[in-house]
Write a structure and sequence with these properties.
With 115 residues, the chain is mainly α. It folds into 2 domains: 70 residues, lambda repressor-like DNA-binding domains (434 Repressor (Amino-terminal Domain)); 44 residues. The protein contains 6 helices and no strands. Helix 2 crosses helix 4. The chain is elongated.
């Protein structure tokens, strides 16, 4: 039996929420919905409207289409998750801190290429 679109969207929301390091409560707050409703969406208990899906995508800072992807490639998904985690790391930093973090990341990447 194939997954319903609601199952897919619920799973994707959960994955993106975890990648972003957000709790159900925090994402629900950002999307202006109840945490119990979000929990139902993630566990396939409730059908989310397109408006709610848009609010969740905006709160997650991702394109709405990302929540409808059924089978992202493993490498693509890993790179995307790492990029999102890096963005989360520098989100609230000032320019000097961001530049410093980027320099450390560049040095680490250069070091890894040598191995």
């Amino acid at each position: 039996m194939s997954q319903s679109i609601y199952d897919i969207v619920g799973e994707r929301i959960r994955e993106e929420r975890k990648t972003a390091g957000l709790t159900i409560e925090r994402l629900a707050e950002l999307a202006q919905i109840s945490s119990s409703f979000l929990a139902y969406i993630e566990t396939k208990g409730r059908k989310a409207s397109l408006e709610t899906i848009q609010k969740l995508a905006e709160a997650l800072r991702i394109p709405v289409a990302k929540l409808f992807e059924t089978a992202p490639g493993p490498a693509k998904d890993t790179i995307y998750a790492a990029t999102r985690q890096f963005a989360q790391l520098i989100r609230d930093k000032n320019v000097k801190e961001t530049s410093g973090i980027l320099e450390v990341a560049k040095a680490a990447a250069k070091h890894m290429r040598r191995k």
